[in-house]
Amino acid sequence: MTRSGGNGMKARVLDALGRLERGEAQAAFADLLALRAGAPDDPVVLHALARAAHALGRYDLAAGFAGQAARSDPRPEFHITLGLSLLALGHAEPARGALHVAVLGAPDLPEARLAYGEALEALGRCDEAEAELREATRLRPLEAGLRLVLARFLERRGRIEEALKVLADGRRLAAKDDVVLRQHQVGLLARVGAVDEAVRHSAEIRDILPDDPAAAANHGAVLFGDGRLDEAKTELDRAVLLGAPTAETLNNLGLTEMALGDLTRADLAFSEAARLRPDDARVALNRGTLLNELGRRRAAETLFDRVIAVAPGTMDAERARFNRGTVALAEGRFADGWRDFEARRAVLGPLPRADLPDWDGREAEGRVLLCGEQGLGDFIQFLRYVPFVAERAPVCLVVPPSLARLVVESQSLPVWKDYFRSGRLIVTESDAADGCGAKASLLSLPFLLGDAAPPSFAPYLRSREAGVANRLHPGLRVGLCYAGSATYRFDRRRSVPLDAFAPVLEVPGIRWVSLQPGKTPDGFEPLPDGDMATTAGVMAELDLIISVDTAMAHLAGAVGRPVWLLNRFGGDWRWTSGNRCSGPGGEPRSLWYPGVRLFDQRAPDLPDVAWAAPIGDVAEALRATGLG
């Protein structure tokens, strides 16, 4: 028998294809091979074998079987399978030819148009590919899945807004339980920053599939991206309870627990994710970050080394190298740390002024454009290196508007005045300055200058603005900054609720000044409106600044004021053991700002527990000496 005209043969082919649809590709392939033994030239059996081989990833077999089928019976669907198999093998032009035959044979068949468009896109003929996809959509206007295919094409072309419009149309057409299109819409909305819409739509998916762990996990991931940490934890915990958790779910749960400050539970989640997917670079990177926060730096470094080794040249490897750099810096291995710290450039993207080459640290006649790249605290910390650059080349320093007046008003300080006076250093708020021959980031300067440990300290910021002190009233005037930006994902580990400072605020004889932008707490003198020069003027009239790890601590340190820093367990690399020196009484102080005294959390407890000890230490030090 060479043809499948018999009802028995047709039924057996249909049974095999049914198994294929149910995901039983290997069994379907075996059944069809048995059928072919009795009908070696039957095109329907050959095509069914091609489909099963394609599902198994055996594209060479699939192309062979489909080619045999198409030679004896040129049905469009046979050419579609042949073309898709050739495309999977990387043979784009032969695939295009086979699929073009399918389109000519069945111009009204959307599947032929879709496959032909895929081949055209692989050949870089994207306008033609888009036309085929849109024609497929026109031919079957009520099918939501075709909208999804078109949206994915537009997304690959970088046309995100158009893709979202197509997905919105598809969503109106989709069946209530069709979550694939909806989930893709959620991911794209989150990508463009439409997080409220993404949260709303992912909640709809969760409601459609209330018992589906993937729906709960995806909703939790979107909530985490929106900073709604408690809700994210609830959904991710629910996903874990609903079914065997995936590495992706556990990874997101670990990130959420870490952001909430529960490092112990985060460690459990990351460890299980790593067990399920030991070669996943993202899991390794996140787990390494957590281990670093737990003070297990060598274990973290081992994970980063592994990612660099197994994924060389990838963005994951660059992230691992950057993270490894922060480990080295935390331990005071500055030469290694600054080298790996440069990997952040690949992670964060290019500096402004692509027309300028990167400065290599050598002496130069043309001006070097120096700019920041992250927050104000980083800018202030690395500002101390600018005079050393000015020794090698004239400098144009790009300063954030909130810092510009303060930097200009500091030019009479010894570290700056000769460079300002000679014109070797100029300050601007725009990176469009003329006459620059190269550019560099402030954070790259230790590496470019070949410096190891931080240079010896002298105050390098000072405001001429008068302070707000009223010395007719006795007692210490102490400024307090208890919180950073709430938009920072891990702010709960850095910031401290004001009511947790009760033991400190109860110390008698102190006049409290707010260094917190926004609403002034009861019993505090307000922080005047203004820029960093205004704030520096306030600090100049204070006896002490108490701060969490924010730009305020860097500003006070750079001005040379005494600072007591509340430091989370593990802490940022710049406050760790490798970045410390001893104060007059043996207390830990910052190597970067000797006026900064450090009060550490003692264990990786939840924030409301972990802050009790350092806050108690601050209260005791205030009672004992006033300044410590």
Keyword list:
628 residues, alpha/beta, 6-stranded parallel beta sheet, 8% strand, TPR-like_helical_dom_sf, TPR_rpt, TPR repeat
Describe this structure in words.
- GO terms for molecular function: mannosyltransferase activity.
- InterPro entries: TMTC_O-mannosyltransferase, TPR-like_helical_dom_sf, TPR_rpt.
- The longest helix is centred in the middle third of the chain and has 16 residues, at 315-330.
- The protein is 56% helix and 8% strand.
- By secondary structure, it is an alpha/beta fold.
- Among the domains are: 289-348, no CATH class; 367-449; 476-625, Glycogen Phosphorylase B (Rossmann fold), CATH 3.40.50.
Total helices: the number is: 32
Give the CATH level 1 class of the domain at 476-625: Alpha Beta
CATH architecture of the domain at 476-625, by name, is 3-Layer(aba) Sandwich
Helix content: 55-70%
Q: What spatial order of strands do you see in the largest sheet?
A: 7-6-5-8-9-12
CATH homologous superfamily of the domain at 476-625 - what is it? Glycogen Phosphorylase B
As an assembly, this protein is single chain
Number of strands: 12
Low-pLDDT runs: none
Q: What structural category arises from helix and sheet content?
A: alpha/beta
The rough form would be described as elongated
Q: Main beta sheet: strand number and arrangement?
A: 6 strands, parallel
Radius of gyration: 32 Å
Calculate the terminal CA-CA distance, rounded to whole Å: 98 Å
